[in-house]
Amino acid sequence: MAKEISSVTDPRAMITEGCRLPVKMYNCDEWPLAEILNIKRDTEDGIASFYVHYVAYNKRLDEWVADARLDYDKMQMPSAVKAREKGADAKSLNGSRPPSPEMKPATPRPPAPPRIEKVPIVEKIKTEIKVENGAPPVGPKQQPKKKKLKAEGGIAVDVIVSQDSQESNQPPTPRQTGSMSTHHPDDVVTRMKNITMIELGKYRLKPWYFSPYPQEMTNIPVVYLCEFCLKYVKSSKCLERHLVKCPLKHPPGNEIYRKQSISFFEVDGRKNKIYSQNLCLLAKLFLDHKTLYYDTDPFLFYVMTECDDRGFHVVGYFSKEKESTEDYNVACILTLPPFQRKGFGRLLIEFSYELSKFEGKTGSPEKPLSDLGLLSYRSYWSHTILEILVDMKPSENGERPQITINEISELTSIKKEDVISTLQYLNLINYYKGQYVIVLTKEVLESHMRAMQKRKLRIDPKCLHWTAKDWSKRGKW
Ligand code: ACO
Ligand code: ZN
């Protein structure tokens, strides 16, 4: 009898998918709360392994763990989890919702800052404020406080905020078609990583997320990719055979940029469909918030490579709709993991804005941005805008230099909303004597200068050989 009771209450016997409990994280001493997504039992010895998602962390940290890493004492059954979430939801209706897990800091990865769409945006005009077409960068109820202007050791620039900056309050509509669209349902299959490892050129990469490679690629230790055409095969032997006959030593399409070892190839998703699909499959391994589709026709892919005597090796890419009704200049962007944190992401972003400058347009990345996407864009926008402000000279009569949001936007091709959200994020806009003034403090200037000195890789517009096509005038993409 006693034994029966203990088996009913033994958490080891009760553990199922949906249970939550502390789990020891790989390579560190932390035991964050995790949800069991899947359980696999060895048919011979019955030993179980568990696929866990750390609740407050990005999905790329999800992993298979052994029994010894679970803290059963604090296990919550799925019903308890649901009841707790219901309670939390009810609370949220009263306006006190806890931050969603995706918004929580994802240490040891960087914390996810608030999403761009949630940054308060410019609204109404205050008539007594002396602004050209004026719209202050605060909501109507938040009256701007008069602050004492301080710029010791720094620079002050008048900023003239334009009226039509308010249009950005509309949340962007996620695209549902194309090579990748915004990811919605979190079903059991796509919630779990399905590829163990890929080999690409001289690198072995551990995927972060699910990608819809064919079933036969999912139960093998390594998927081998041709680093030039991105074809995937099941074994190194197959790859060897493929490499003998593969004609490519660079991505297909036109090389539209080359400076030193860095090149960009423009690949048309309609003309090079197989390559584009293979690129999307590869990218999806590191992109969480997109679902992959096979319609690559409406996209161009800008593939960045590094060249050596063996060929042009892919470093990263971004895709771009041939026609975007929302002024998106990037759909998806990726630096392959071995090349991350070396300035290549920033280079890709800079290139995307150079294309927009050639087109005479402003642009913005497709939303939602991932946590790393937002960090990279914030960093790029901040430094690009600061570069302009720092270079501004006082007028001849010694007055503070003046610039409008529109001018910053035109000079950089960064969409107005992103200019405003960046200025707000950097907390640079001050209200002084009826004017909006950007005050660049000594600290901001110094940190900007430090970042600029680190920034070795830059796009050189002179090396871009490209003419923008007007896709709306073409019968077919
Ligand atoms: N931790 C902290 N800050 C980071 C990190 C990180 N892991 N990665 C990027 N940043 C920030 C930093 O501010 C960095 O500047 P710093 O090096 O001076 O500190 C800045 O971003 C740019 O860094 P790069 O080295 O130029 O960027 P990277 O080559 O690593 O590429 C990218 C950034 C493309 C976002 C990369 O992390 C990636 O491919 N991630 C996976 C796919 C993804 O999330 N793509 C964006 C999706 S959103 C969209 O597609 C529109
Ligand atoms: Zn090949």
Automatic annotation (TrEMBL):
- Residue stretches making up the MYST-type HAT domain: 190-468
Report the superkingdom from the record.
Answer: Eukaryota
Q: Where is this region: Disordered?
A: 81-116, 161-186
Q: Where is the composition biased (Pro residues)?
A: 98-114
Keywords tagged on the record: Acetylation, Acyltransferase, DNA damage, DNA repair, Metal-binding, Nucleus, Transcription, Transcription regulation, Transferase, Zinc, Zinc-finger
Q: Where is the composition biased (Polar residues)?
A: 162-182
Q: What class of enzyme is it?
A: transferase
* Subcellular localization(s) per the UniProt record: Nucleus
Pfam short name (any one): zf-MYST
Q: What is its EC number?
A: 2.3.1.48
**Residue runs in coiled coils:** none
Record-stated family? Belongs to the MYST (SAS/MOZ) family.
Protein name (record): histone acetyltransferase
The organism encoding this protein is: Priapulus caudatus
